[in-house]
Design goal:
With 468 residues, the protein is α/β, with parallel strands linked by helices. The chain is built from eleven helices and 19 strands. It is 32% helix and 18% strand. α9 (389-407) packs across α11. Flavin-adenine dinucleotide binds next to α1, β4 and α3.
């Protein structure tokens, strides 16, 4: 059996494994072996539907050393004035360039693609899915699990319901490969993939009345205009959030206040959303989504027959010639929170509120610049990803406290403030701008009461939170 020596074995060349490796090799003189069962870097984006784009600014995604895209504001179209958002081909080309030019080209990273990682006790093995050859990897420093938050997607996850043989069901990816138009489209799912699918169909001329939307939960979504790399916008978002929380009587009241402040969006104003994964959405997309009136809210689908869709709380007819479009993979994953640094491995998770790439890069920087795991875990406590209004509030509390903790370290604060992935970044030249100062003052005014009330609403320990 072949044997490989390395300092770090990073399992998973998705966005988080890439961002961690990039920051690590920038700040430590180490060799990394990066393994993925996919053939290239980019993780789930390699199997994403072809019309997907980042839901927020390209600047916030990718690795710390190299900006994704040009950092430009969109000059025309329905999102004029907002930052550009990379498409799937742009994301894949970017990760491919980082992997080959920056990582492998430096001689400090070895990439083992199409290769499966397995651990047996304290031994590590990588088996090529092409040749079948297995190598034992001797790891001098750490194993890094960059798969812990790997999302599930429709292309690689079967629909979570049964479908009769004579019903046509496809993953959302197939919408871009149809050879004949179906009578109607049944979009199944409540999240970003479903909204992307609907916006794409409408944009391609499908009339709204030919779309049925099975939406088990209504989603809260973030207004894209308030998630932009501009400190006035970023501080304004934080101030709005804390101000809303400070006076909120309940979680629903918090979200309604955020809606009134222009932060949160919902499709149907008559329905209180139960889902809060909070991808960003633009106003033009919201307008399009609201044209779909045939919405089925009877829980999750159990099975589909040629004549009807059977759900938890009832059944609806299925029109002849319908195409059932699977947008119902869970997407974000919610494994148990564990310390990022454990004796056996580093498990990459988010730390601040959202932004997995920044969090993975932060973990890479902290790994390179600190030598004690207790201290690393103190600086970078794991955070949850949101699913419901309660977990969204919990994420805000944990993430705000974490950002204060790592931000209190001068070198981390300086690094974070030089990193385009960081949505809280303020360039030195912007610090004294009157609008920035005003937004910062508004945040300072509401932060303490807002965070404390948010913690109550989320049943989460407040600012004195001890580590896990
Ligand atoms: C459609 C969609 C759009 C999104 N848009 C955004 C966005 O705009 N902004 C944002 O911040 N987030 C977005 N997210 C979420 C974000 O992309 C993810 O949180 C993040 O990119 C996931 O990266 P990852 O590296 O954790 O997982 P993945 O991309 O899934 O990468 C993990 C990799 O690990 C590999 N792997 C797993 N097990 C093994 C093993 N045993 N051996 C070898 N390899 C293994 C897998 O093949 C995979 O390539 C989006 C998610 C989806 C699904």
């Amino acid at each position: 059996m072949r044997s490989v020596e390395t300092d770090y074995l990073v399992v998973g060349a998705g966005a988080m494994g890439m961002a961690f490796t990039d920051a690590l090799i920038d700040h430590a003189d180490v060799h990394v072996t990066l393994v993925d069962r996919r053939h290239a870097a980019g993780g789930h984006w390699l199997d994403a539907y072809p019309f997907v784009r980042l839901h927020q600014a390209s600047l916030f995604y990718g690795v710390a050393s190299t900006v994704l895209g040009g950092g430009a504001v969109q000059a025309g179209g329905p999102e004029a004035g907002l930052q550009e958002r990379a498409s799937q081909p742009e994301i894949l080309a970017y990760f491919d360039d980082i992997l080959h030019r920056r990582f492998v080209g430096s001689g400090r990273v070895t990439f083992l693609g199409e290769s499966e990682y397995q651990a047996e006790g304290s031994s590590h093995f990588v088996t090529s899915r092409v040749s079948g050859h297995t190598a034992q990897v001797h790891v001098r420093s750490r194993v890094v699990d960059a798969t812990y938050l790997s999302p599930t997607i429709p292309a690689t996850t079967p629909p979570p319901f049964n479908v009769a043989d004579d019903v046509r069901v496809v993953a959302v990816n197939e919408l871009a490969r149809l050879t004949a138009e179906p009578g109607s489209y049944v979009i199944v799912g409540s999240g970003k993939t479903a909204t992307d699918g609907i916006v794409w169909l409408l944009g391609n001329g499908v009339p709204p009345e030919r779309i049925v939307w099975v939406r088990p939960r209504d989603p809260w979504m973030l207004n894209r205009a308030v998630v932009q790399p501009d400190p006035v916008v970023g501080l304004g978002l934080a101030a709005d959030t804390m101000e809303a929380a400070a006076s909120a009587e309940s979680l629903d009241d918090l979200f309604l206040r955020l809606e009134a402040a222009g932060v949160m969006l919902r499709i149907d104003r008559d329905v209180m959303p139960a889902m809060a994964k909070t991808p960003t959405l633009a106003a033009w997309e919201l307008d399009l989504l609201r044209t779909i009136t045939n919405v089925v809210r009877l829980g999750h689908i159990r099975h589909v027959t040629r004549r009807e869709i059977v759900l938890d709380e009832g059944a609806v007819p299925l029109a002849p010639g319908s195409l059932v479009v699977h947008c119902a993979a869970a997407g974000l994953q919610y494994p148990p929170l564990v310390p990022i640094w454990s004796p056996d491995k580093i498990r990459l998770q988010t730390i601040r509120v959202g932004f997995p790439c920044f969090c993975a890069a932060l973990a890479g920087y902290v790994e390179a610049t600190r030598d004690d795991d207790r201290e690393r875990n103190r600086l970078c406590p794991p955070n949850i990803l949101p699913d419901t209004p309660a977990s969204w509030a919990r994420m805000q509390v944990r993430g705000t406290i974490a950002a204060r903790t790592y931000g209190a370290e001068p070198d981390i604060a300086a690094w974070a403030n030089s990193c385009a992935l960081n949505p809280a970044r303020i360039e030195p030249a912007q610090r004294d701008h009157p609008a920035v100062l005003a937004a910062a003052a508004r945040l300072a005014q509401h932060a303490a009461r807002g965070l404390s009330r948010m913690a109550e609403l989320a049943h989460e320990p407040g600012p004195s939170l001890d580590r896990l």
